[in-house]
Amino acid sequence: MTAPIVQTHAGIWVVRDDLHPGGTKARFIGQVFDGVQEAVYASPPEGGAQTALAHVARALGKKAPIFVAQRAKPHARTLEAARMGAKVVSVSPGYLTVVQSRARQYCRDSGASLIPFGADIPGSVEALAAAALATGLEPDEVWCAAGSGVWRGVSRLLGRKPGGTLCRSGENWRGRMSPGPAFTSVCGRLGRWRSSGRRSRQICTMMRRLRNCA
Questions:
Q1: Which of 30, 114, 174, 214 would you label with 57, given CA atoms 20 to 30 Å apart?
Q2: Residue 164 above 50 pLDDT?
């Protein structure tokens, strides 16, 4: 387990898993290659799993075709996956249902393994919880992006800690609304700032600057 890089900005701990090769999902996606030489993924253009898969496939010497909606200008993550050696298959029309259908047909024809959407695979939650524990941090509050295994892993970790608060797209695990943005893999010691709109705006500004510098 490679512990995530943690930086401090304006008194806030920021877990920079964007610096981990392939991103957060690269921490567990390698298991899709257990017993197979080729694993296929149907990705949204902006999906992070495509880059995670490409990085891990290259490291393992495996094949990882990625089916994605055709675009006049491919998303930066798709371009990164291609640079890492993944075979990118552009699909038109680019509806996700069509992209997934083409990926399934490829697997039927080739015998390759199909990765579930979102890389929602066994062990992913445990891997993310282990990465969070590896930081050695005990934050009062955690802010992270919703809609991925990152949310499930961190929620499982903090769910064992009484009094913890986990914000997901503005809604915390206790069901109350909290102002502020959702951050990707961000572990913040926010304390009582949760109710401060001004502080939330400061955090938004800080995160935009971090993205520009990454």
A1: 214
A2: no
